[in-house]
Amino acid sequence: MTSVVPHSDSRYQRLPEDVRSLLSDRLQMVSTSTDSPTAFHPPTTPRATGPRVATAPHSPQPSDRSSPRPELSVALHNVSKTYRNGSRALINVNLQIHKGDFLFITGPSGSGKSTLLKLLYGQERPTEGIVTVEGSALNRLKGNQLAMMRRRIGIVFQDYKLIPRRTVAENVAFVLWAQGYTRKEIHRRLWPTLKMVGLQDKAQCFPNELSGGEQQRVSIARAVVGTPPLLLADEPTGNLDSENALQVIKILKKLNSIGITVIVTTHNEHLVRVSNHPVVQIRNGYLRHLRR
Ligand SMILES: Nc1ncnc2c1ncn2[C@@H]1O[C@H](COP(=O)(O)OP(=O)(O)OP(=O)(O)O)[C@@H](O)[C@H]1O
Ligand SMILES: [Mg+2]
To answer: Which of 12, 146, 176, 282 is at 20 to 30 A from 166, Cα to Cα?
Structure first.
């Protein structure tokens, strides 16, 4: 079993500046962990039998013993977000997502989709209301606890955020290495993950040698190599043609099928239409269900 190195002498400090700045959200201020890294495998939480998404305000505790439901992965309770400049990005949003669910978030540009993901990731704080992720109310977490929580969330961005002068394998392995995983453990996780996204033959390529779809798949590999129970993907298909977009969605579905809760924002109505997953729409900050 490997342990996570203390922050004070962390490998994080020894990373080159370009790498550190790209990974800072994920790695900074982490001091200890009870994680025990193993080979790539799904989270241990039971797979949901079907998607369950609700909008009613909810106290995030399983209560109804007669109909057992998977635990909540995410709950937003009366959440509003107004930015300092007065932009009202989200208004009184209530949403529950259970472990093992797959949710699409759609809505026009500027409607609040990324803001919602940023609240889940703790990058922004709500002006009102409570955001609970994987059992923790984020408003109660201090800086270091928030960093620990972020380890349990994989994030995929539209613009990939890959480290330019590092190979595919290094891009994916850096997060694990900086968290103190041994070389052996990194290898045990890296190769199955690259295989899962179909990039085992591109491991030694640099990002500028890859297509957009391949770069996006590297970013997915990086997001899930630490086997997070929750994956957030903000417009992961936004820069891709329809074939690559479908491939990315297929990978996200595969991850969901092994138990990872997946939340995806997208403008792509076709992708949403051809899928049978629940869909919520955000419009002018208000959230409503299009499909449950
Ligand atoms: N850091 C910020 N400061 C001030 N206003 C912001 C900030 N980030 C977002 N906003 C505003 O909040 C609203 C919602 O933005 P958000 O990025 O969540 O939209 P979005 O649905 O993700 O849009 P897109 O589809 O274009 O990515 C917009 O009016 C935007 O201008
Ligand atoms: Mg956005």
So the answer is: 146
Q: What is the pLDDT of residues 153-181, one digit of tens each?
A: 999 998 999 999 999 999 999 989 988 89
- Mean pLDDT to the nearest integer, 45-71: 48
Question: How far is 272 from 245, CA to CA, in rounded Å?
Answer: 11
Distance (angstroms) between ligand 2 centre and the Cα of 253 equals 21
Residue 210, token pair as written in the block: 């890859």
Measured CA to CA in angstroms, residue 55 lies from 80, 115, 215 at distances of 14, 17, 35
Number of domains in the chain: 1
User: What's the domain range around 227?
Assistant: 7-291
Ligand 1: nearest atom to the Cα of 118: 18
The answer as to whether 124 is a domain residue is yes
Q: Whose CA is nearest to atom 25 of ligand 1?
A: 109
- CATH code for the domain of 189: 3.40.50.300
Q: 93-119 as b/e, with b when 16 or more CB fall inside 10 Å?
A: bbbbbbbbbbbbbbbeeebbbbbbbbb
